[in-house]
Design a protein that fits this description.
Oligomer: single chain
Subunit structure: The glycine cleavage system is composed of four proteins: P, T, L and H. In this organism, the P 'protein' is a heterodimer of two subunits.
Number of helices: 16
CATH superfamily of the largest domain: Type I PLP-dependent aspartate aminotransferase-like (Major domain)
Protein name: Probable glycine dehydrogenase (decarboxylating) subunit 2
Strand order of the largest sheet: 1-7-6-5-4-2-3
Number of domains: 3
Low-confidence stretches: none
Bound molecules: pyridoxal-5'-phosphate
Strand content: 5-15%
InterPro entries: GcvPB, GDC-P_C, GDC-P_N, GDC_P, PyrdxlP-dep_Trfase, PyrdxlP-dep_Trfase_major, PyrdxlP-dep_Trfase_small
Mean pLDDT: 94
Family: Belongs to the GcvP family. C-terminal subunit subfamily.
Organism: Thalassobacillus devorans
Structural class: alpha/beta
Length: 487
């Protein structure tokens, strides 16, 4: 799609055209060789395009819109909760009292910021039904690792050194087995049954005296609520293990169900998903961890506490697993999450879950007429389709995902979870209108029809993007980052 307003700045370069003006030099010129080793000094001038300020402005503005974001279009990337991030969050996070403070400032000079963090901890503890929350971890996976290190410290404090295994369902998020491994445990898989839920018989088979914990993603990555949580909690606790709740996506249960009430000992949340921290592009995130009273002593230090009317950090925590992040967490994301929670209120948060679940079920029921639905049950905030019928026509799920780009949509998560052939995992979120949901479903139906009548158009998609299909492996491993790859 050639764009007139997108100047190819190298091609448009004109000798001596400048986009800046500098005053006459009024200081002595410096000899660079006095300052640097000669090997660092370039011999020829950099071959930079010579363009006007307007041209360079258009260039960067055009580049800034080349990426797809929630603010530019529908983004139903399952498990990632790409919901709208309210802009009032940004206004509040930019207040100088929050944005211009320094982590080394004396506590009495940042009482407002500490109070916000303390209140957020308290609110998140209430939402999850846990005793205490730490805001230190910087992301979901980091929260998982932090929680598992606390579980490890707990078992070791009890002289229970043989608990080396963490049980992870095959429908868990991929970070779960990874975090268990990084925390020094062996990840053991428990299978799902034919309804897509944890198979209790298989759980009984793998649990034992070597079980440190069960890590449960709920709703699981099929978008299904694990119906037998109370039985699972009993099985694990009876064996002396602990229960870890992956609450990265709390979008389906806010105000309706709390991990603490289900028997979980440790839970993490992703503020950059459920609580509207902007994400994508690698951060920053925030993955607070909530624990029961039994685990409070192991929380990362320093722990933010209230002494009378003053907020401050408690470093005197002999059983703490230590610091897991410099300073106190990603404060800016905490401010955004706090703003979101306060603007929504308790009733608003319940509505979030109602609409997230309604939207997902609405789309699922419209799409099941055209795509295979491997687990035909009410879903929570997301659902998983299979493109196996389309595959028989020569159109793979990857092709469908690429074709969606031509309609201006970010594709759903594909080929995950692994227990569904040609999986397409769709998470609409509560912030989209019915018109948007319908338009996306219509595009999916059109693509399925194309697969039957004109498969090439899908196989060769995308047709409207700046670059078409890339070699996915070399694009990631050996990206060409130069404008002119031969220079
Ligand atoms: C996103 C996600 C994670 C990982 O969170 P990051 O912030 O990306 O590390 C873990 N579990 C589930 C269920 C998730 O959706």
């Amino acid at each position: 799609m050639a764009n007139q307003d997108f100047p190819l700045i190298f091609e448009h370069s004109q000798e001596s055209r400048t986009g800046f003006s500098l005053p006459e030099m009024d200081v002595p010129e410096v000899d660079l060789t006095d300052m640097f080793d000669e090997s660092y000094i370039r011999e020829t001038e950099a071959d930079l395009p010579e363009v006007s300020e307007l041209q360079i402005m258009r260039h960067y503005t055009a580049l800034s819109t080349r990426n797809h974001g929630v603010d530019s279009g529908f983004y139903p990337l399952g498990s990632c909760t790409m919901k709208y991030n309210p802009k009032v969050n940004e206004d509040i996070a930019r207040l100088t009292g929050f944005s211009h403070i320094h982590p080394y400032q004396a506590e009495e000079t940042v009482q407002g910021a500490l109070e916000l963090m303390y209140d957020l901890q308290t609110i998140l503890a209430e939402i999850t039904g846990m005793h205490t929350v730490t805001l230190q971890p910087a992301a979901g996976a980091h929260g998982e690792w932090t929680g598992l290190m606390m579980i490890r410290a707990f078992h070791e404090a009890n002289g229970d050194f043989g608990r080396t295994k963490v049980i992870v369902p095959d429908s868990a998020h991929g970070t779960n087995p990874a975090s268990a491994t990084v925390a020094g445990f062996e990840a053991v898989t428990v299978k799902s049954d034919d309804r897509g839920l944890v198979d209790l018989e298989d759980l009984k088979r793998v649990v034992g005296e070597d079980t440190a914990a069960l890590m449960l993603t709920n709703p699981n990555t099929l978008g299904l609520f694990e119906e037998h949580i109370l039985e699972m909690a009993e099985i694990i606790h009876d064996a002396g293990g602990k229960l870890y709740y992956d609450g990265a996506n709390l979008n389906a249960i806010l105000g309706y169900a709390r991990p603490g009430d289900m028997g979980f000992d440790v839970v993490h949340l992703n503020l950059h998903k459920t609580f509207t921290g902007p994400h994508g592009g690698g951060g920053p995130g925030s993955g607070p961890v909530g624990v029961t009273e039994e685990f409070a002593a192991y929380l990362p230090k320093p722990v933010l506490i209230k002494r009378g009317e003053q907020f401050g950090f408690d470093y005197d925590r002999p059983k703490s697993i230590g610091r897991v992040k410099p300073y106190y967490g990603n404060f800016g994301i905490n401010v955004r999450a706090y703003t979101y929670i306060r603007t929504m209120g308790a009733e608003g948060l319940k509505k979030v879950s109602e609409y997230a679940v309604l939207n997902a079920n609405y789309m699922m029921r419209r799409l099941e007429k055209e795509y295979d639905l491997p687990f035909n049950q009410h879903c929570k905030h997301e659902f998983v389709l299979s493109g196996k019928s389309q595959k028989k026509l020569g159109v793979r799920t990857l092709d469908i995902a690429k074709r969606l780009l031509d309609f201006g949509y970010h594709p759903p998560t594909i080929y995950f979870p692994l227990n569904v052939e040609e999986a397409l995992m769709v998470e609409p979120t509560e912030t989209e209108s019915k018109e948007t949901l319908d338009a996306f479903v219509d595009a999916m139906i059109q693509i399925s029809n194309e697969a039957k009548e004109d498969p090439e158009i899908v196989q060769e998609a995308p047709h409207t993007t700046v670059v078409s299909r890339m070699d996915e492996t070399t694009a990631a491993r050996k990206p060409v980052l130069r404008y002119n790859k031969d220079s």
